[in-house]
Amino acid sequence: MRFHLLTVGLAVTGLCCCLSSEAQTPAAVNPLDAIPENMPFDVPYGAPISLDRAEAAIAAAIAEAKKHHWKLNVAVVDSGANLVAFQRMDGAQLASIAVAEHKARTAATFRRETRVFEDAIQLKQNYYALTLDGIIASRGGIPLIEAGKIIGAIGCSGGTGSQDEAACKVGAAIVK
After folding, report:
1. Buried b / exposed e across 92-120, counting CB within 10 Å, b at 16+?
2. Dist CA 23 CA 158 (whole Å)
3. Residue 72 CA neighbour count, 13 Å, CB half
4. What is the CATH number of the domain that holds 159?
5. Mean pLDDT of the chain
6. Is residue 39 in a domain?
7. Number of domains observed in the structure of the chain
8. What percent of the chain has pLDDT over 70?
9. Is residue 46 part of a domain?
């Protein structure tokens, strides 16, 4: 019995010491409270992408998908996030039509790759991103930048996120 009371007494003493030292430790700094010196993702909007260039970006993304036997939906929006061109590969998942468009719109309006939102939630646990209207937290949406300005964005869907992203990067490289 004495041994049991001694064990409990030591445990309570240890807990009190832990709690008192924890109370004296300064609160952890919330990374969301950091104030960056420069505005992140501050890429200006430019003139909207032309249909010819949008179709060229789609053709490049589809060529990449065909090399790997991926069946994708590919959308290109202009700098105002309005649909300019779209193609669905034979056999591509129907639900991914809207997802490809959503990825492109998100990349254009938020001026960043959609992977940033995926990473914010999955890796950094910044769940606030889930509260933002119009985002999609899945890779495969990439802004199209020319001369330092966003002229549109490309979105791919139908494969895994990494497949969608790989095809989009090939399509985006055509525009630069």
Report:
1. bbeebbebbbbbbbbbbbbbbbbbbbbeb
2. 50
3. 36
4. 3.30.450.150
5. 88
6. no
7. 2
8. 82
9. no
